[in-house]
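Weekly structure sync, notes
Attendees: PL (lead), two postdocs, one rotation student
Agenda item 3: pending single-chain targets
PL asked that the sequence for the first pending target be pasted directly into the notes so everyone works from the same version. It is reproduced below exactly as submitted, 221 residues in total.
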Amino acid sequence: MPKSYLDRKEAWAKKMIEKGGLHQTERSNERLPPGQHTVEKLPILDLGIQPKIDKKDWVLKVGGEVENELDLNWGNLQEFEQVEEISDFHCVTTWSKYDCQWGGVKMLELLDSVKPSSDCLHVLFVSYDGYTTNVPIEAVYSPHALLATSLSGEPLPIKYGGPVRVVIPHLYAWKSAKYIKEIHFTDHLQLGYWEKRGYSNTADPWKEERFIDKEVPGWRD
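Predicted structure, written out during the meeting:
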């Protein structure tokens, strides 16, 4: 992604935060979240880096406020039950793609293995391209949240975050980190790449939670 695009996206956040952001007073019940339009093809958005990671070299470290820390390689990941999920995908830049067919491992399976502590409130995802994003712990307990390894029945392409990415379809798509490398369960908030630049921590598309409240402690820290 050209740097100019990243600059424009950051400037957009600053402008909207000063205006008070875009927030719905009530959560929409429509399939298409407010402010969105549908697209036929899944767009490609990243930081301008698409790291090529061979499956034999891929490792996912899972740790922090958990009972069992894990270092998963590709073979370990295949030992989990493999599922398919069809879900809609919503980007903060206002596009939505209906009926994305993801395959992989349910986050619930991973949670059952690592057993987050009762003190855990947040999750920080770290990617092989240096990207980071945070979500509330409740987000990964969704039955539709995945570690995705395929799209439309084919191995997940690099351009869409392969070999493994996070998919949390009930949040804006920037929360679904590509090229996943590390998952940290924490008892405190750690802002990710876009959150540090003004984007929401909760990111509910149906409440149009695109931007952070400028009064939130820690923003810009």
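Discussion points:
- Residues 28 and 75 are 41 Å apart (CA to CA).
- Residues 3-207 form a domain with the Sulfite Oxidase; Chain A, domain 2 fold (CATH 3.90.420.10).
Action: rotation student to compare against the earlier draft before next sync.
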